[in-house]
Design a protein that fits this description.
CATH architecture of the largest domain: 2-Layer Sandwich
Subcellular location: Cytoplasm; Nucleus
GO molecular function: DNA binding
InterPro entries: TBP (IPR000814), TBP-like (IPR015445), TBP_dom_sf (IPR012295)
Number of helices: 4
Largest sheet: 10 strands, antiparallel
Shape: elongated
Helix content: 25-40%
Main location: cytoplasm
GO cellular component, one term: nucleus
Strand order of the largest sheet: 2-3-4-5-1-6-10-9-8-7
Order of helices and strands: EHEEEEHEHEEEEH
Length: 187
């Protein structure tokens, strides 16, 4: 980061999306009738189950594929996924927890300064794009680590990436570019 500003930026993880497989066929109707905190969506061919601790929502398909959303860390996502597999086992399915993978992490971070989005976009033209008629944020895509950063003029940024490490790396990479384009303080 910047040597004159030794403050650490707080990266707050707001959502972790993970997937896993049960390696068995699941009867959605049975899950809907016998499970707790269940929403049955037959028009989409899935069941939603909500867990309280860790707080996650799982989309379950009859094929045995499950997507868990809402966790605030990779560990919480794995814990929630394992708890969900256990819930399905208790409902009588021969579930084997396999192919667990964190597929997306969403985080927010606030810069200690406001940003001139037009300058930021001009200086980083091929990678950054800003269309104020469509969205109030500039989009900066880092292909090497598969991360996308939404930069708002207030200094807030939203980062999506495949894991927590890539999200942290994206914030480290974009900080100097944002510092160059910080808005002067009004007097």
């Amino acid at each position: 980061m910047d040597s004159s500003n030794d403050e650490a930026l707080d990266i707050i993880i707001t959502n972790v999306v993970a997937t896993f497989r049960t390696r068995c066929h699941l009867n959605l109707r049975t899950i809907a009738l016998e499970g707790n905190n269940v929403i049955y969506k037959p028009e989409f061919g899935k069941v939603l189950i909500k867990l309280r601790k860790p707080k996650i929502t799982a989309s379950i398909w009859s094929s045995g594929k499950i997507i868990c959303t809402g966790a605030t860390s990779e560990d919480d996502a794995k814990t929630g996924a394992r708890r969900l597999a256990r819930v399905l086992q208790k409902l009588g399915f021969k579930v084997r927890f396999s192919a667990f993978k964190v597929v997306n992490v969403l985080a927010v971070c606030s810069m200690p300064f406001a940003i001139q989005l037009i300058d930021f976009t001009k200086k980083n033209r091929p990678i950054a794009s800003y269309e104020p008629e469509l969205h109030p944020a500039a989009t900066y895509r880092i292909k090497l680590i598969k991360a996308t950063v939404q930069v708002f003029s207030t200094g807030s940024i939203t980062v999506t990436g495949p894991n927590v490490q890539n999200v942290a790396t994206a914030v480290e990479q974009i900080y100097p570019l944002l510092f160059e384009c910080k808005r002067p303080l009004c007097k």
